Amino acid sequence: MAYRYKTKGTCSVFIDVDMEGNVLKNAVFHGGCNGNLQGISALVEGRTYEEIKEKLSGIKCGFKSTSCPDQLIKAMEEAMRNE
């Protein structure tokens, strides 16, 4: 299931996630630190929501209360709710 999530509080503007059940098949960040976000996407693709949440949930970016990895968790949660 493909889903577009509008991020909140990060440099990236959207995250497109493609999920199969609770497994992340693909994640594409729009905006933000391109190289770092491509690396994060490559590392988490094929993993379950639970595995990714354990590692990335709650990460902050500088003084911000969230980060692109943290917003990925929110995107996955919303995608699963809207399945």
Q: What is the topology, as strand order, of the major beta sheet?
A: 1-2-3
Q: How much of the residues is beta strand, in percent?
A: 25-35%
Termini separation comes to: 7 Å
Radius of gyration from the CA trace? 11 Å
- According to DSSP, the number of beta strands is 3
What value does the average pLDDT take? 96
Series of H and E elements: EEEHHH
> In which range does the helix fraction lie?
25-40%
Principal-axis shape equals globular
Largest sheet: 3 strands, antiparallel
Number of H- or I-type helical stretches: 3
Low-confidence stretches: none
Supply the helix-strand structural class. alpha+beta
Short description:
The protein has 83 residues and is an alpha+beta fold.
Give a written overview of the molecule.
By secondary structure, this protein is an alpha+beta fold. Helices cover 40% and strands 28% of the residues. It has a three-stranded antiparallel β-sheet. The radius of gyration is 11 Å and the shape is globular. The N and C termini lie close together (7 Å). The relative contact order is 0.26.
Layout: helices, strands, pairs:
Layout: E1 2-6, E2 12-20, E3 23-31, H1 34-44, H2 49-56, H3 68-81
